[in-house]
Amino acid sequence: MWYCSQGTGEDYPHEVSDNMQERNAASGNTGKQAAGEAAAWMVDDGSVIGLGTGSTTAYAIKAIGRRIDEGLDVLAVVTSYQSEMLAIEAGIPLTTLAEHPELDIAIDGADQVDADLNVIKGGGAAHTREKVVAFSSEQFVVVVDDSKMKEKLDHFVPIEVLPYAKDLVMRCVRELGGEPQLRLASRKDGPVITDNGNFVIDASFGVIENVEALAISLSMCPGVVEHGIFTDVTDMVLIGNTDGSVTRLDTLI
Ligand SMILES: O=C(CO)[C@H](O)[C@H](O)COP(=O)(O)O
């Protein structure tokens, strides 16, 4: 269950909303920027935060960096080399899960979100660390543009696998009714190698009727390091719309 609220200027602090629509429209990435920047305002002073990966989260990271310039005091755990580089560039002090195993809030993008706030992640092959960070956080906030919202999930599911187990995992996926495809690199010959040194298999299942059952079945296949289905962890989704407004979906407890 979730409830929904929508706003433009009034719902978010001045700095996010002021001229937000104009700036976002100019960038050509309106929804992602609106959602990412709105999430940056969810971060409290003195908190330890998790930073996801991807182009939408990048807007949040840059906006948190601007808040730090104005005095915000935070420490961040990153989920990938990409978020590490962006956080360093934005001037965000870093820490680790070993030093801070419990995070206050994590902000991350998604490839698709359904009406029950189930999420598919891993378009950037970072979902393993992203899932660890999400489950280590008191609050997990997902930031997406409105094209990512679906009544039922039908996006392919990224699965990080041990290279040694590639063929077994492909067989598991087929037995579960899916069509597996090894993700290939675009600027290198051969497969994508994750930040953890593994392969990624993208598995298409069409419309996923039972998200939790599929998530459990995929986890049970030997050689699966982690798959991109996130259930029962998302507390809030901030959806950036093409006009620069942001719609908020919260879980009801
Ligand atoms: O899961 C992810 C990385 O593994 C990303 O958060 C997801 O792919 C969304 O990316 P973007 O914000 O660039 O659309």
Automatic annotation (TrEMBL):
SUPFAM superfamilies: D-ribose-5-phosphate isomerase (RpiA), lid domain (SSF75445), NagB/RpiA/CoA transferase-like (SSF100950). One of its GO terms (molecular function) is ribose-5-phosphate isomerase activity. It catalyses: aldehydo-D-ribose 5-phosphate = D-ribulose 5-phosphate. Its EC number is 5.3.1.6. The active site is at 130 (proton acceptor). GO terms for biological process: D-ribose metabolic process; pentose-phosphate shunt, non-oxidative branch. GO terms for cellular component: cytosol. Keywords: Isomerase. Pathway: Carbohydrate degradation; pentose phosphate pathway; D-ribose 5-phosphate from D-ribulose 5-phosphate (non-oxidative stage): step 1/1. Substrate binds at residues 53-56, 108-111, 121-124, 148. It comes from the Archaea. Pfam families: Rib_5-P_isom_A. InterPro entries: NagB/RpiA_transferase-like, Ribose5P_isomerase_typA_subgr, Ribose5P_isomerase_type_A. Homodimer. PANTHER family: RIBOSE-5-PHOSPHATE ISOMERASE (PTHR11934). NCBIfam families: PRK00702.1, rpiA. Catalyzes the reversible conversion of ribose-5-phosphate to ribulose 5-phosphate. This is Ribose-5-phosphate isomerase A. It comes from Methanomethylovorans hollandica (strain DSM 15978 / NBRC 107637 / DMS1).
